[in-house]
User: Which sequence fits this backbone?
């Protein structure tokens, strides 16, 4: 069991725990309890990683809940040394493995706590993406119909297309932006948002988009255009995820 604990090998760990119970052995040292909680935490970590890659909201909801449960349960175990126990060689060995499982679990749970925060950010961004996808074409047409748009609307849309990979020089003229917003099918705005992945957005692009949005608030933009406000919130979410990712690389 010890190699499985050290290597975080879920298959071997699950097999060892199952074999222990199948043999009818008593968990008098707490080794199985700790190993079981370590296994749960590792599996929650792996499932959360998969959900973050898939960016599926339902999967994120389920795995975040499971990870939070794993974290909360890990703090309820009595980690005090076991008393009144016969200290033969086998028992001593099991106690050593238990301590190893406790240490490994502590590390995994700490990582899992940070991962939950990251997964929640991904979930929030995916919900923002969903809001964009739920917009009817009339809302985009409403933004597009401006002949001379307010500064906030223009800059929000420039920032949106910049994050989608369109050079800023192609969106400075409002008529050019109107042409982009008028495209449909694969090149349509909603389809482009659907295909967008923050991992492919350079930090330089995100920082320029942030500069374009300036000190605007969602309330200010919403007072002018509800549709533009939806893109504003989505753009802010993308910028946050990109900058957070780069900050973690620098740490």
Assistant:
């Amino acid at each position: 069991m010890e190699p499985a604990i050290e290597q975080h090998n879920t298959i071997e760990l699950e097999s060892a725990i199952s074999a222990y119970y199948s043999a009818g052995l008593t968990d008098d040292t707490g080794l199985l309890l700790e190993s079981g909680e370590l296994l749960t935490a590792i599996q929650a970590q792996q499932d959360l990683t998969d959900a973050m890659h898939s960016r599926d909201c339902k999967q994120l909801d389920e795995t975040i809940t499971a990870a939070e449960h794993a974290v909360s349960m890990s703090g309820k175990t009595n980690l005090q040394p076991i008393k009144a126990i016969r200290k033969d060689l086998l028992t001593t060995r099991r106690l050593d493995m238990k301590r190893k499982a406790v240490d490994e679990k502590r590390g995994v749970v700490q990582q899992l706590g940070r991962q939950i925060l990251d997964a929640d950010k991904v979930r929030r961004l995916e919900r923002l993406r969903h809001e964009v996808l739920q917009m009817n074409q009339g809302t985009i047409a409403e933004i597009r119909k401006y002949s001379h748009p307010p500064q906030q609307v223009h800059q929000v849309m420039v920032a949106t297309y910049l994050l989608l990979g369109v050079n800023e020089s192609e969106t400075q003229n409002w008529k050019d932006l109107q042409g982009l917003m008028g495209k449909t099918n694969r090149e349509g705005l909603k389809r482009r948002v659907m295909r967008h992945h923050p991992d492919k957005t350079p930090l330089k692009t995100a920082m320029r988009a942030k500069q374009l949005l300036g000190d605007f608030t969602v309330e200010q933009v919403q007072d002018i255009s509800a549709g533009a406000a939806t893109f504003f919130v989505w753009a802010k979410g993308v910028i946050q995820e990109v900058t957070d990712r780069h900050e973690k690389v620098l740490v």
Remarks:
- DSSP finds twelve helices and no strands in the chain.
- The mean pLDDT is 90.
